[in-house]
Predict the structure.
Amino acid sequence: MEITLSVILGFMIIGAIYALNAKDLLSALIACGIVGYGLVICFLLLKAPDLAIVQIVVETITLIIMVSVVLDSTRKELKEKAGTHMEGISKIYTRDVINIAAVIVFALFLLYFFTQAIDVLQPFGEHTTRMATAYIDGAAQKTGSANLVTGVLFDFRGYDTLGEATILFTAVIGVLTILRIKGKK
Amino acid sequence: MIVYLLCFILFLTGLYGVLTKRNIIKIVIGLSIMEFSIFLFLVLVGYIENGIAPIIKEGQQSPVFVDPLPQAMVLTAIVIGLATNAMLLAMAIKIYRKHKTFDVRKINSLKG
Amino acid sequence: MNGMTSIVKTVTRIVVGVIFIYGVYVITHGHLTPGGGFAGGAIVAGAFILLVLAFGSDVLKLKTKEEGSSVFESLAILLFLILALGGFILGTGIFLNNYFPKGIIGELISAGVIPLYNIAVGIEVAAALFTIFLALVIFKEESS
C-alpha cells in the first residue's frame, strides 16, 4: 500500500512542478488536473468513498470555471524577460541562481523540522483511535444511520455542517457582489 | 513514514508557487495544490491497515473501521476550498478587466 | 455563448436525465450508502452545468440576472435552520438535536431527522454551485 501511494504521489509532484513552470496557461490548468484526479485515486485506495465522489465533481467544476476565465482573457504567460535580456545578461543568471538556492535552503530547513515533528505519530497504518472509539461504539444505536461519516457529520458534529453551509452562502454573496453591475450615478 | 514526507514536499511545491510567481492564475493553482496536500495528510493519518470503509453492513462480526473523523472534516474542507477558489477567480476577472494584465506587480493604483 | 456540436447535443439529451436521477438517489440514500448531501448536491449541479454548456445560453433564454437559483439556495438554508430550531423547541432544549424516532438500521425511513438534513444541504449545495457557475462563466456582469 505504501509503494502504490508513493508512486501516485510522485506523479502528483511532477505534475505540480510542471503546472507552475508552464509557459502556456492552458497547459498549466490541465497539469493542475493531474494533481486533483490523482487525489481521487488516493482517496479510493484509503477507503474513503464519500471524499472521492465530492473531490471528483468539485475538481471538474473548478477546472471548467478556470478554463473559462483563462480563455476569456489571455493565454500567454507574462513576457517581460524579453525586455531585460539586452542589458546585463550575467545579472539575470545570478539572480535566478540565488532565487533557486534560497528556495532549496528554505525547503531543507522546513523538511528537517517536519521530520522532528512527525516522530510523535505512529507508523503509517497503525493508528490508535482514541477519539473515534467513543464515536464508533454507540453510533449505530444513537444516531440510527448505517453510514458512519454521515452520522458523525450531521448528528455528533452538527455545528460544523451549519458553519459550512454558511460559508457557501457567503461565498455566493461575495461573488455576486464583486461582479455586480455598477448603479446609475 | 515516507508518504508523509512526500505529502510535505507537495505542500512545499504549492508554497513555492504562491510566493514566487507573478501571474495571478499561477498563484491560484499554487494555493489549490497546498490545499490538496493537507487533505491527503489528514486522511493518511487516520488509515488503519486492513480496515474497511466506515459503513455498517448486515451480518459482520466486529469489523475494524477506518477512522471516520478525519473523513468528516475533509468533506467539509473540500467544499470550502471551492468557495475560496471561486472568490479569487472573481477578483482575477475584475483585475483583468481594469488593467488588461494578470501581472501582480503592475497593479499599483488603489483607485477604482 | 454558443452551444456545442450536434454529437454533444444528442448525447446530452439522453444522459442529463440519468445524471439528475443519480444525484437525487445519492442525496436521499445518504444514510445508507456512501454519499450524502454534499456529494449528491454537487452531482445535481453538474447535470445543470452540462445542460447549459451543451446547448448555449441563447437557446435556454436565461435572464440577465441569476434570480431563480439564488432563491432556491436561500430557501434551502432556511429549511436547514428551521429543522435545527425544531430540535430546540420540540425536543429537549438542545439545538440540532435528533428528535424524530429512529427506526431500524438499514431501512430507507430511519435515522431520525438526518434524511431531511441531507435533502436541505443537497439543494443548497446544488443551487450555490450553479449560481457561482452562472455568475463567473456566463453573466460576467459588465459595468454600465
Remarks:
- Chain C touches chain B through twelve residues (CB under 8 Å).
- The two ends of chain C are 20 Å apart (CA to CA).
